[in-house]
Each structure stands twice: as structure tokens, then as C-alpha cells.
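User: Here's a protein and a ligand (T4K). What would the complex look like?
Assistant: Let me lay out the input and then the predicted complex.
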Amino acid sequence: MRPPLYVTRPLLPDLAELNILLESVWASNIITNIGPLHQKLEQELRQVLGVPTAMLFNNGTIALLAALKLFKLPAKSEVITTPLTFAATAHAIDWNGLVPVFVDVLPETLTIDPAAVELAITDKTSAILGVHVYGNVCELDALQRIADRHGLKLLYDAAHAFGTTVDGTPIASFGDGSAFSFHATKLFNTVEGGLLATKHPEDANDIYFLRNFGIKNEEEVVSIGINGKLNEMQAAVGILNLALVDEERRQRSVLREKYLSFLSKIDGVLCQPVQPGVSNSEQYFPIQIDAEIFGRSRDDIYEALKLENIFARKYFHPICTDFEPYRDFKTYSVHNMPYVETVKTRVLCLPFHSGVTDEDLKVIERVFLAT
Ligand code: T4K
């Protein structure tokens, strides 16, 4: 049997190099609480992400929680978001004492539909939380116009959009803030980790307190912060991984072309459109399978790949509104049936990392072409 091939594979630094860095941690005895490696990584990420405020967190979910907290939104007010996301997006809204309101996605990019956002706005709406799902960039201008017109905060879940730029502008420069995930499954990882970025230098101070219990000094706590700190061991992994990320991204972009060379010829298999001016994060390789045209369903392909020890993922099926906590929530849409209900039956993320070989691709192609 072939070794298992997963949807993703973590970027891991050279172990000997990691040991050298960890020796400095052992020598100093500073293993957490914003130590020197944390500070170094944060500084480097600020450069890479191209925004004045870029604050590390211990995971993407806590970064999202802190982002919503930063805005001081009224209790129980409504935050409009997409159901086609990881549960953490909706959970972060609820954990802030706010109410998630779900709206439909656009057929091509699968990001939040601005027209549906407009439909969902009430006098209780306080923010929009868009997700750059699979690295596809949200309708930035349309969402900003809506936010401005209605006086709403605009936050982005950029868990899949590390390093993305739009016409050369870093993705974190848009909206009022962007939360990234540096989980093992992400293009850039710190094992677990996250980051909150904003274009406002003055946010850094508030986020600093939000990340560390609101502690100002030994005798003062100035805000209701959480423990969002990344430790020195993970910062060491991050520093070394940051040097590897461009090459991983390059190899994934080559892999993307290889996938497209056979998938784009298959009727009923839809690959993601190229967004003009967008440099792709190369986080995932999602496709949509239209069973009526293709002749087999997304689930058929998922199972057939599994028989080959290849583990694609149906991100994000079930969608948030299928989950127990959000089951009775409506999805606002400009269509009779929200498009997201169709997408969730079609979408499949194929293995997408530098470990996918030409042999693997041959097996995947064979599974798609089998009748
Ligand atoms: N917003 C969005 C849009 C997100 O996608 C996420 C996280 C968040 C917010 C929250 O960020 P974090 O708080 O997580 O930083 C994974 C990840 O756990 C999760 O971070 C990620 N999104 C989500 C899309 O995927 P699972 O349940 O799919 O993980 P798992 O363990 O099944 O891993 C998938 C595959 O990756 C495995 O089959 C094998 C491979 N893998 C995984 C791990 C953990 C490895 O090769 N090595 C590993 O160490 O959730």
C-alpha cells in the first residue's frame, strides 16, 4: 500500500538548526511571555506582512477573539459572516457575546456575497467578518463601501491568506483588521499560532494588552485581556519556517499548474478562477465537482481517493449552519436557495504541498478519469 497522502503537510525546519536556536532558549531560561525569539519573529512578520501592527498569538482562533474584542462592539450586536468556513470563525463571534449572522457566498470565489451582506444588515449589525477562504480574496472594495455606508467594522479571517497581496498591496492592509492562523496545516506554521494585523500603528498597544491579560505592569491591569501568547519554542520553529515559506509556495504553485493541466479538461470539474492582481497564498487547492455533468459526485471521488490512501478533505462541509450550535440560523441570500448549500456538496480540497509527487498526481488523475 502507498504511504498515506494528506491534504496538507506541515513545513518543518531542519532539526539541527532548530536545536541550535533552542540552545539559546535553554541558556536564557526565558521560555515564554514575549521572549527574544517571539520578538524577533514578530518583527520579521511585520515586514513580511507589510503592516505597522502585526501581533503574534498562540493560535488563529484567539487572534480572531482578540480582533473582535479590539473593536469594542456592543454586546449582543450582530456580526455578518459566511457559513463556508472553519467553525472557529463563528465561534469567535459567539465567544465575544456577539451574534453570528450567516450570508451566502459568491459562486466563483466562494467568499462572502456583498449583496447578501446588504440584505442581512439590521440596526443591530456592528461588523462584517469576511473570510479569504482557500486564499480567495473577498470583494474588498464592495465590502468596505458597505461597511463605510453603515458605520460597521470590517474584519477579515485571513487564516488561508498568508502573504497574499492585491495589486501589490498586502492583504492585511484591507479592512480594520486581519486574523491569520499559523497552525501546522497552514502554509506558514509555528506548530500552533496566529497573528492579528491592522494598518493602524496605534492598535498595537491595545492588542498587546488583549494578548497578555491586560497587564500593564506588576500592579496594573488595564483591560480584559486573555492569554494569547506564543512560547519561545514555537517562535523558534516560526523563525526557521519563515525562511522556507517562499520555496514551499513556489513548489505549490508548480503543483497547481500540474493539477490544472488535467483537471481543467474534465467536464464537471471546476477549478478556482485566477483573481486578477492577486498573488495566491497557495494554501489549498479546492475544486468543485458538479455530479450531474461529471457523472460522479464529490463524495464518490473522496471515497475513491481514500481507497488509494489519499486523503482529500471536504473543507468546509458540513458548513457552520449544519452544526448543532448554528442549526436554526438563517442564511441570507439573493437566491431562492443559498448557493452555499450547493457548494458544500461539491467542494473538495486535494492534497496540496511540496510532498505531492508526479506519481501521486498520476494516481489522482486515474481516479478522476476512471469510469
Ligand atoms: N479560520 C479559518 C478559516 C480556519 O481555517 C482556521 C483553522 C481558523 C480560523 C482557526 O485557526 P487556528 O485556531 O486553528 O489556528 C485543521 C486545522 O486544525 C485548523 O487550524 C484549520 N483551520 C482547519 C481548516 O484544518 P482539521 O480538523 O482538518 O485538522 P486535521 O488534524 O484533520 O489535519 C488535516 C490534515 O493535515 C491531516 O489529515 C494530516 C495533516 N496534518 C495535520 C496535523 C495537525 C499533518 O500532516 N500534521 C499535523 O500535525 O483542522
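Summary: Residues 6-10, 59-61, 85-86, 88-89, 131, 157, 159-160, 181, 183-185, 194, 311, 315 surround T4K (CB under 6 Å).
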